[in-house]
Amino acid sequence: MSAPSTGPVVRVPLAQLQERLQQIFQRHGCSEAVAAVLAANCASAQRDGAHSHGVFRMPGYVSTLASGWVDGAAVPEVTDVAPAFVRVDARGGFAQPALAAARTLLVEKVRQAGIAVLAIHNSHHFAALWPDVEPFAEEGLVALSVVNSMTCVVPHGARKPLFGTNPIAFAAPCQGLAPIVFDMATSAMAHGDVQIAARQGEQLPPGVGVDAEGEPTTDPKAILEGGALLPFGGHKGSALSMMVELLAAALTGGHFSWEFDWSQHPGAKTPWTGQLIIVIDPSKAEGGRFAERSRALVEQMHTAGLSRLPGERRFRERAVSQREGVAVSEQEWQGLERLLASDRPM
Amino acid sequence: MSAPSTGPVVRVPLAQLQERLQQIFQRHGCSEAVAAVLAANCASAQRDGAHSHGVFRMPGYVSTLASGWVDGAAVPEVTDVAPAFVRVDARGGFAQPALAAARTLLVEKVRQAGIAVLAIHNSHHFAALWPDVEPFAEEGLVALSVVNSMTCVVPHGARKPLFGTNPIAFAAPCQGLAPIVFDMATSAMAHGDVQIAARQGEQLPPGVGVDAEGEPTTDPKAILEGGALLPFGGHKGSALSMMVELLAAALTGGHFSWEFDWSQHPGAKTPWTGQLIIVIDPSKAEGGRFAERSRALVEQMHTAGLSRLPGERRFRERAVSQREGVAVSEQEWQGLERLLASDRPM
Lengths: 346, 346
What we know:
The structure is a homodimer.
Chain A: E1 9-12, H1 14-27, H2 32-47, H3 58-67, E2 77-82, E3 85-94, H4 95-113, E4 115-124, H5 130-138, E5 142-147, E6 168-172, E7 180-184, H6 191-199, E8 209-210, E9 216-217, H7 220-224, E10 228-229, H8 234-250, E11 272-280, H9 290-303, H10 312-324, E12 326-329, H11 330-341
Parallel strand pairs in A: 3-4
Antiparallel strand pairs in A: 1-12, 2-3, 4-11, 5-6, 5-11, 6-7, 8-9, 8-10
Helix pairs in contact in A: 1-2, 1-11
């Protein structure tokens, strides 16, 4: 959620940005279907000011595709396992097309059964998690998702990194307002934000990570080069990160964050793990007035003095982007042109 | 999870403690069925060394029953809403008997549908949350539960308390070992632990709470008397606490933590809210080997240097209690005798 690099910014219509990203994905080995899903996802993050998951990610996507680590043309295999359980084998491709392939079946099950779960494995997730849950809230459903990533977080009380940044995302409808959405790494900071701080030469607050010797550091480069992140909130954040490993990997049949070996694929950046999505139909409960109640919660939060609710900043940035075009730094826009022109990543 | 009060301790067989607690619950207005459920719950907490939810809670239960705030004889009404959705109206009684009444139907649905949800409303939860989820893990299922409580936590960035301590509990089976279980308040500290610190005259670490003026304090009495707790982990813990309000109250049809008015019931201590329990059958997923995979996670956590996993301390205390009897301070044991003898709470 960091700011884009300093320097001149261009404003690009969302459709144009999305088309450009889709061309890049296709040029570097994605099928049209996969490219469309990833381009929409990445452009949405840029649109919402979630820059660590926007255009910033494109070189990583391209270098990963070039490395042969991920299959950009994988066709996900959806299995209807049980009345409220859908399983997807992403076949070594990205998680977002796997979700897209299973989404209609999942929502049918939720409407029928009241709750349903989507278990994706053999998948790569390199994006923000909120785009996976927010659309369910727009349909009046409540969604919770977890995805594990790659070893870079030292469990609370341990000596060595084990967990991924293992985010948890949640979305719920809210009457007359944008959905309530949050997407939080269970690490003290998201990996992309550490990368952005390193690129911009910024220091981090204390408590975010350790260096290669396991000593606390505020230098993002020391965290990225042999160091590790810490969980947020001590033993509690650490327990949640462990839960994400269990739900996203053990339960789906995906890899734990430490289980995949990408050493034979230089340039690979995407964790090969799993993802779990739980969706609930609140109209089934006594709380049929869910969206009204959710609105009442928001009003109380404002009364208690909260100036900004989870997700609000993104929706505000989105409104600006829709009016004026999506902000992309000139440097990034030129980078996209190079990615489109070249066979190799930047 | 604090230590019992200092001073002499008696060791009581679990069955004897449970029977004593059941007698007390019945003496103060609980039906036999409700008393049995609550006594088993409270005795288990004491057995596991989870003292803030053990015998320590009994005067609060009794004063609440005496105040007329909760119906100790309520018969929960279970509704089979959808193939994976069960709703319970606890009818102003306790949440644990509501869970007990719906449990068989819930597990049937989980086995059939792969996932199911139990939405309890019009309920009082005054106990630890792990006893609600741990038994599912013992049956090979994965369970997640949230319950909201009563306004005592200032949302991150707000000026006034709004949320409850709003715990999240999780349980998963683990091959050859006790289940992996955690139960965490989304506040920086559980309310019961603040009460125990106040009773024992201890100071709290910084960051736990604020006094009546909203200023940071380490004095547990200042937090309890007009002050408030803070969420754990800043804005992330705060977002999770908000999620608990949405799931446990808005979605179930229960009260938000700030909605009930017990001012006409002096002595009432139990929050009148809601509870959500999500249970998943991991055998439905590609991860059919769930318990083996969960064991692999535990082994990696030990290798990474973790000396204690979530729930381990409780299981160790449990083993001692099973061998030597459950530790209860002499003072608490005498307190139980007085509760049994009197019509009024201590």
